[in-house]
Amino acid sequence: MTARGLERWGALLLLPIFLTGCWDNFQMNQLAIVDALAVDYNRGQYHVVAEVFNTMAVPAPAQSSPTATGGSNHSSSVFLEGAGKTLGEALADVSASSSRHVFWASTQVLLLGTGALQQGLGPLFGTFLHYPQFRSTARVLAVPGSAQSALESDTSGMEITVAQEIRNQDRYLHHDLSQGWAPRLYDVMRWDTEHGRSMVLLSLEKKPESKMNPQFRMDQSLVIGPDGRARGSLPSHDAMAYLWITGRFSQGYVAAGCPAGAGQTTIYLTSVSARSHVVVQRGTVRGIHIRLTGTGKVAGPLCANLSGLNMAANRRMVSLTMQTVDWAEAHDADIFGWGQQIYRQTPELWNDMPGYWRSRFPHMPVSVTSHVTIVQGDEGRV
Amino acid sequence: MTGIVTDPDVLRDLRIRSANLIDEIEEVLFRNQLSRPLSANLTNNMAVIQGLTHQAADLQFTKFACRGGLQGAILFAIDFVNYELMVAGIVEPLTGLNWTQAEVGRPLLEQVAKTIAPVGGAEAVDNVKGALDSIWSGGAVVFLDGTSGAVSINVGKINKRSITRPVSEQVVMGPHAGFIEDGMTNLSLVRQRLKTPRLWIDRMQVGRHTRTAVYLLSLYGVTDGALVDEVKSRLCQINIDGVLDSNYLVELVKSDRWTIFPTVLRTERPDRVAAGLLEGRVAIIVDGSPLAIVAPATLPMMMTSAADYYQNWMVATFLRIVRYIALTASLLTPGLYVALTTYHQEAIPTPLLITMAAARSDVPLPAVGEVLLLMVLFDIIREAGARVPTGIGSALTIGGTLVVGQAAVRAGIISSPIIIVVAGIVIAVLAIPNPELVQAVRFATYPVILGGAILGVYGILFVTIGLALHLASLESFGVAYLSPAAPIRPTDFKDFIIRLPWFRQTTRPAQTGYTDVMRQGPRSS
């Protein structure tokens, strides 16, 4: 390596010294460690509430003794608030409201109120992208109404934070479900809006007069269009088909009508998978065909022979799937990622039809066939 | 032209010069006295020797008279001679002789040397220096009145302890003998392992006053002659007043003197010396030191324990990997702790971050202050523990543990996670087999901590790069310190981090054993 090259390498190595140093360090006890963040928009301003761990409530080893109760006099979290015309201003306001250094990197839950979602996701995530210390593994949840009300809890003395409670619900109750519903921030940031994809956000609701912490609500799940704005709430009966088609969940219960009007029975779907086939003819997308396959078993009364139940269950699954597709088309929300599929399969076709998909999707012919095999379950033996 | 000097600078200069001149004159006179021939006058000889040694309390003149009337004296150093042997072997035969005062001259001394000298041998002594040199080696010098010169008869007694286990390099499986302070015993321990005439031992004397015997060992045909010559030449160039331990020589002869890392191996184990010789290295045994020197040495050698070769090769390999992990951990962990807790908190999992932040909530010191305080405290306890008698050692351990582990945390001076970090590295550093490398790593930890405190992980990177460059720049008698890793030498990987079984180690290390490459014949592999 020449002397000039060495000089360049040396300069490159030395330059980062000016980017960091002892002047911007923070001791851990100077940090306000954020666990969750609620973002609302009203009266022309963004309102941000940060739930911060109250480290004083964590029993320090020096205090631990058989008689110590572990900081039960303290609430597990404190709340910092801020507002501003932009989200950046609001976050800066939150930082200014604390004497400690607000540490965003530990944010685990990001609650977005309806008002903020109506403003679109673009400004929200654009701001987070400019906060390099903001960890992109935070779970993004939608809150019908005010996100702040869902986050703030008046149950003082709680040993866990609201965000921890939400994570526990996710972990113990809805883990599999929330995989597809409550994406992490990096999923949202990688969200393929360019190819017309819409997104579904699981919603969280706190009942107005309840002492309980906020709970997951499937029937209020918000659909965000490619423009980053809320398109509406996905009906709960459509949720299951959405999960099948997107391959995020393969189980569920469906009610199937018994043949000859003998009432209804319940079918437990043990494994369902869907395959979407985009039909392209003469350089045009002619339609989408969805093929459902898998297995299920009778979980309710065995009201007919299995062959009859098979037909009834498959009919029901086709109708459920069509219902969901119809909802998506009606709301102009490609939540299934078919635009993305076309782009991946035939990029040249996608490039030849700029703007075509946005206008075509609401009228796209869709057909569904179901080949789910139903077997006799334990319930059916009775 | 004459005049009186009044300038104070000139006066001071003159005073210093005159003092130096007096010192030089005294030195010349002393040397003249030392090289003065022994006279025929017994009283005169005694007076000169007593004057030169300032009547040293451990020197004794014992006068005797032969049956025939001839006067004589024996000069010896107390506790350097076997007293019973001297009386029975020298004094009694001499006093029984019928020599008279008239029978003076050289033949008498020759007769003494030939007839009554015990098994140890005798030699003629002509001057005062010779007489004094011989008594420190266990000789009894016989003077006869009227006869110039003297004869030194070896009746030496060696004060030495028995062979014990090596203190710093113990193994569970394998030989347990360790070197002691006696050079000849140490040589015999090596000789027991290398019973070959190819083991060449050169004797030298180093130290103007201590006159310490230094033995240079090499294996003829295996060790490179140039290496032997180089070591010999460096030893010969030493002009020091005294050598009390092998470390004196290490600092005087090693290639890179301004480094804390050991560039020669000092070992208490004769088997390691023998192994080093078989690899084409040289060994130096210093009389009075239980630590032999093996050179050239590399960093991987320092990470090798003698036990590696006395157990299953796969186990030995695993243990070597563990040692390298311990080396890295003990070097980097405190610095990383400081960097992560001060600059890169986002790299810490949130639950751990909260626990650590809570633990630090009442601590007044910054993380770097905590780490440095505890590191220094541990070093003090360790240093104190190395000095105190065994009986007090346990009290010290309890005191140290209580003070550091409990009281300091309860008092809010330090947080509990830092105790785990520092205690962890205190234990980890002990996994390094070489005590000198342990000390070097302990020392090198501090720059890493400071680098982490000033620039975070980037600072640690800087210090680590600097450390790596320093290590790569070191050499030991022409061998790169990091070899076979840098410069890379794949043929020597057989005994680097992985220790291949003996049937795969057919050649000597390329860096030292190039004179006789093959270690095993075709049959054994």
Low-confidence stretches of chain A: 62-72
Largest interface: A-B, 29 and 29 residues
What's the total number of strands of chain B? 12
By helix and strand content of chain B, what is the structural category? Answer: alpha+beta
Helix segment count of chain A? 13
Give the termini separation of chain A: 83 Å
Query: Mind telling me the C-alpha Rg of chain A?
Result: 26 Å
N-to-C order of helices and strands of chain A: HEEEHEEHHEHHHHEEEHEEEHHHHE
Number of domains of chain B: 3
Largest sheet of chain A: 6 strands, mixed
The ordered H/E elements of chain B are: HHEEHHEHEEHEEHHEHEEHHHHHHHHEE
Can you offer a commentary on this structure?
The complex is a heterodimer of chains A (382) and B (525). Helices cover 31% and strands 29% of the residues of chain A. Chain A is an alpha/beta fold. Chain A folds into 2 domains: 29-234, no CATH class; 239-381, GMP Synthetase, Chain A, domain 3. In chain A, the strands form 3 sheets. In chain A, strands 1, 2, 3, 4, 5 and 6 form a 6-stranded mixed β-sheet that branches. A 4-stranded mixed β-sheet of chain A has the order 10-11-12-13. A 3-stranded antiparallel β-sheet of chain A has the order 7-8-9. In chain A, helix 6 (162-172) packs across helix 7. Chain B has 3 domains: 42-154, no CATH class; 183-297, no CATH class; 309-480, no CATH class. Chain B has helices at 8-34, 42-52, 83-95, 106-116, 128-136, 183-193, 225-236, 246-253, 270-278, 299-302, 313-342, 350-359, 367-387, 390-410, 416-429, 435-455, 457-473; strands spanning 59-65, 71-77, 122-125, 139-144, 150-154, 199-206, 212-219, 265-267, 282-286, 292-295, 475-476, 479-480. Chain B is elongated, with a radius of gyration of 31 Å. Chain A binds chain B through residues 13, 16-17, 20-22, 24-29, 31, 33, 35, 53, 55-56, 58-62, 103, 105-106, 108, 133, 135, and chain B through 341-343, 345-346, 350, 353-363, 366-367, 409-410, 412, 416, 453-456, 458, 462.
